[in-house]
Amino acid sequence: MSKLRIAILGAGTMGRRHIDYVNASGECQLVAICDPDSGVAKLAAKNEVPLFHDEYEALDLAAPDGAIIAAPTILHEELALACIRRGIVPLVEKPITAALDEGRWLVDEAAAAQVPVLVGHHRRYHPRIQRLWKLVKEGAIGSLIGVSLLWAVKKPDAYYDVIWRTRAGGGPVLTNLIHEIDTLRYICGEITSVYAATSSATRGFEVEDSAAITLRFTDGVIGSIFLSDAAPSPWSYELTMFENPSYAHVEGNCAFFFGTEGSIAFPTMELWRYPSADSAGWEHPLVQERHEPADADPLAAQLAHFCRVIRREEPPLVSGEEGLRTLAATQAVLSSGSEGKPVELLPA
Fold first, then answer.
1. Is 192 strand, coil or helix?
2. Can you tell me the distance from the alpha carbon of 215 to that of 182, in angstroms, rounded to the nearest whole number?
3. Measured between alpha carbons, how far is residue 132 from residues 121, 205, 264, 291 in Å?
4. Distance CA 37, CA 8 (A)
5. pTM
6. Alpha-carbon dihedral of residues 291, 295, 297, 302, nearest 10 degrees?
């Protein structure tokens, strides 16, 4: 089977990571890099592929089978549509688009053209997320009752030297929480309402630095999230998952899933439940089990899946519609925090 041809649109931090994964893959090959920064020329030369400064030229001349869109979010709709109209399958980094109406247009255009769209919520491919999904769906903790998630980190002050990060849309809700929202949708079901309080009191910027969020899912499941990028703590996905070498790492948990017959701590995958129905209740000791899978790189798994999506061997795990629903729930956090009232979301 011949290797699939892949173009990278956007050679920033994520784009460069995707380049490394494509080069390491046996299923695809890098055929183009596109970025307006002339400084990317050395990167293209190192990878022995042409550098384009115009995305349309890159798609037309390099003729890729698939394109990974790692450009700024405001360009996602335009670039994904350019791919779709050429029959090129796009992998769009999160969020799918900057605005919901753009995402809706993109999803509808893709459906009409019968071109699949994959959205880069790569955490769904992590073996621990996959194991968690399986345990919950198969009833290892009975019927799901609720979830509590923590995401508290201290971003370096220099992080906010980039001016757009201090303004609306540049804070931890759309940058970081969107990952957690997607994971919770995957594990717990569709989010039907969001009630949030947001604050910018710690950093003093226009953009939020902290949030407390109540979620309601289908089937009566409820959840809570505390989020802050100004609070030093070991309780976040990034620090507990040992996934990205850019972060310091600690042993511990950042999320807890509660069911009628037990509970799971994530990512240690500790499952707590009573040994039998006859000894259930707070007067009896709980028994701990460990369900840790062998870890693997979720970005590598996502790329392998992307290749299968391009070949039409399987549907996208995170389709355009899925990416759009995650964006809607994430933006609802900001709307609720601003308006001071719950935001209801349309059912799936």
1. strand
2. 13
3. 16, 36, 8, 9
4. 14
5. 0.94
6. -40
Tokens matching residue 81: 């549509």
Q: CA geometry: angle at 244 spanning 241 and 249, to 5°?
A: 50
Distance in angstroms (rounded) separating the CA atoms of residues 10 and 28: 18
Q: What is the pLDDT of residues 189-207, one digit of tens each?
A: 999 999 999 999 999 999 9
Structure tokens belonging to residue 55 = 């995305």
- Beta-carbon contacts of 116 under 8 Å, excluding residues fewer than 6 positions away, are 89, 110, 309, 312, 315, 316, 319
Q: What angle do CA 159, 165, 166 make, to 5 degrees?
A: 100
Residue 262 and residue 140 in contact, taking contact as beta carbons nearer than 8 Å? yes
Structure tokens at 262: 């037990």
Q: How far apart are CA 332 and CA 315, in angstroms?
A: 27
CA atoms of 113 and 105, how far apart (whole Å): 12
Q: How far is CA 109 from the centre of its chain?
A: 23
What DSSP string describes 122-181?
GGGGSHHHHHHHHHHHTTBTBSEEEEEEEEE-B--GGGGGSGGGGSTT-SHIIIIIHHHH
Neighbouring CB atoms inside 10 A of 8's CB total 31
What are the tens digits of pLDDT across the range 77-88? Answer: 999 999 999 999
Q: What angle do CA 141, 145, 151 make, to 5 degrees?
A: 95
The pair of structure tokens assigned to 82 is: 């350019």
- Contact criterion met (CB below 8 Å) for 47 and 32: no
pLDDT tens for 157-191 read 999 998 989 888 889 999 999 999 999 999 999 99
Quote the radius of gyration of the chain (alpha carbons, Å). 21
